Model the fold of this input.
Amino acid sequence: MKLSFWQKNSEKIRNFVIILVLFLITSPILVGYVWLILRSFSEDLVNGFVPTKLTLKNWRFLWQEIKGYPNIWQTTLNTALLALGVMGIEVLITSLGGYALSRYDFPGRSSMMKFILALHAFPAISLMTAVFYLLWTLRLLDTLWGVILLKASLEVPWGTWIMKGFYDGIPWELEWAGLVDGYSRFEVWRKILLPLVKPGIAVTAIFAFLSGWSEFVFVNTFIFSQNLWTLSKYVKGFIGDYRFADYGLVTAVGLFYMIPTIIFFFFVSKHMIKLTIGGVKG
Amino acid sequence: MPSIRVVNLKKYFGKVKAVDGVSFEVKDGEFVALLGPSGCGKTTTLLTLAGIYKPTSGEIYFDDVLVNDVPPKYREVGMVFQNYALYPHMTVFENIAFPLRARKIPKEEIEKRVVEIARKLLIDNLLERRPSQLSGGQQQRVALARALVKQPKVLLFDEPLSNLDANLRMLMRAEIKHLQQELGITSVYVTHDQAEAMTMASRIAVFNQGKLVQYGTPDEIYENPKNMFVASFIGNPPTNFLKGFSVEVEKGQTILKRDDVVLKIPKELETNLKEVVVGIRPEHCEVVHNKQENAIPGTVYVVEPLGRDIIVNVQTDRGELVKVFGDPAKIPSVGEKVFLVPHLEKIHLFNPETEETIL
Amino acid sequence: MKRLKPLLLLFPLLAFVIIFFVIPVVLTVVIAFTDMDYSFVWNFVGFQNFRDISTDFIIPRVIANTFIYTFGTLGLFNLGTALLISLLTTSISDRWGNFFRTLWMLPRLTPSVVYGLLWLWMFDPTEYGLVNFIRGLFGLPPQDWLHSAPMWMVIFANGFIGASMGMLVFTAAIKSIPEDYYRAARIDGASWFMVVRRITLPLIKWHLLFVTAYQTLSLLASFEYILIITDGGPVYRTEVWALYTYHNAFSHFRFGYGAALSIILVIIGVVSALVYMKFFGFESLMEKPKVEVE
Done:
């Protein structure tokens, strides 16, 4: 068989072209984040991406007061509280609810499951006006708890569904064995099932934390006092005030805000993506 | 039609040595079976021939031309997959026409060739159906048609009959063999069913754990297995192995002793071994009631009637269970004391450590 | 008591759902018939808000923007790019495939304000913005993108986020297609395009449909990134319905009017929920529990 260079290497060439195209399409993402990191540590960037001088001056918001803005550490604390609050509530509710949906039969079970899943598709914005009124009535306006409870509520339907999936994956025999061995259902849940759904809890916890950490719209809408600001408001403010004057400062604050996301990405991403794909398929 | 030559083929997946130094050749127009248990490397070898896998090392020649780097589409092979791989959303016609479409062959020509091959395989009345509407046997023929329609130089089969029920399997065995002989296409057939390999192939390559253990005609492999693995894999019920026989070589004969048993083989073995394993095929042994020379005592454990044959399971004094074809007219009862008299010219002796055949 | 145990476990979930979903839905509908503002006074005005919507001269602009934004982002990114990425990344080795797919997840996981910052930089009106910088390499002058092409800014920014969901769904679907189909096609000599067109795409029809339906509804109600990047501007050029609702309620404190505008979003929510339910093929997921002991 006399094959041309193109034919012989057709599969290798095709792979090369595909990777090239992918790099091209993905370039805005690559470029964007590279810029974020470079710019935050540079005095200025010339010719696109070359730093004139590496500096930590942009990070001065960590030790200096920036006029008109709350203390960065207070803000970070607020953000952390929000994230932890959302995470805690979500994990609690979903690990109980997921178990109930997976292991109990009761009238209305299937309608409830459909209802819960359907809620996931409901856009948050449609209810915000009413929620504003609701929070005001409950005296939760301008409080972190208001946002925490709201955020958690919107995410627990889907989270419960995911946890149910994890519970479903545990063979019934394990529970039967536990019951036969003399444990109550609660003990079986605590000692046998809970450790086995740890991956599910981990997934729920991590995503809940990150979503709480990143929350912007609710904070923007329901919180007014600067001392309750989270980093999202802080960064947004910086973008508005300092964007044209000092990209360095803005990118530094942005990068600072992104730290948990980056940590997540480097240490956990591979496993998470596989799990998310499983979850999406249902 | 090309001949195929595989030279020292190795295919590793990370640390797993799926194929570890396999060499064999297939003559032009020959039907060769790659036989072995699951995971032995036969399918991997087949996929390397197809070009789906690239060898880690070693060469593959089609008609003395090195094809290691030739992509599958230029090797002109047709392949029938174990699960048929029929595209579920296409009709039978479109499935068969697919390889021709890929070559940009004109529509009229495609239609002609598809109908021709469908007629030959007796599926021309199914052309408008979807695969899900076909029986297993019909799907199999469609898969075969798709492989044949592009007039390939080599045909590769990956356990195509394993998803069919026993009767259909025997029917298709004969049909595939007949078809191959009629068309004369060089064929390589992977299977784990030794009966399939024995009845269909002109030569069988026995694989185990990534290595080619023995390559020969069905007769050769049956009569002269190279080691215990081949002896036990070929033949149904498999060869019985009796361990712990001591060896004494004398002039003109070899004496095997175990407990009270003495077997005198009328051949002078050339060996330094002190101990051998004796292999006896169920069809090469008699069950008798009275003590004789060269007999092994035992008790009848269970009898398996098969209509035409019966298999008598005899438990030896050492606890081994030996299966022997008995006389359907004289069925022994369970618990009876009997003697096993092997056909001494047909037994095999094996080195207990290397498991290789000595006789 | 037996029957109540599961409900007890589900109580927190139900409580949250009722308080933050069901009650707000009811409230929205009720408030829509008032002219409530930041004083929180209940003053019923009948259908006045709805009449106002029909005479609001900004509404036609908002509706047009919503459709352009939704279908532009959907076609170009949430469907188009998602499909492209999943087809491409499944055609090469898993190592490269995972690399690119992981990168595409980054936008979705980044805090929205930081992500907004990146796009604001890319479309910065000065020569320091990425796009203008590239234009500068070709000798072209910098453009003020916010004024010349705000809708494109918004579509691109949302698109890079939206594509990741479709990418996950399509990739999972493509990976579930039996490998033998592709091997057979390779042996038969089909080109990459032929394989995609005749084998892959027909076999993921359900997924294509699902993503289209789900993402359309999701885009119709989205606004966060638009809020951050253009805030609906300049002068309502990128004001979509959801954002208009937000502005009316929280910038102008017209809660009654905002609630009325929200109702269309609630309807979208209900339709989404029904579509979602229908698509998920519930029977297989409804395995009955196997313990009757309490």
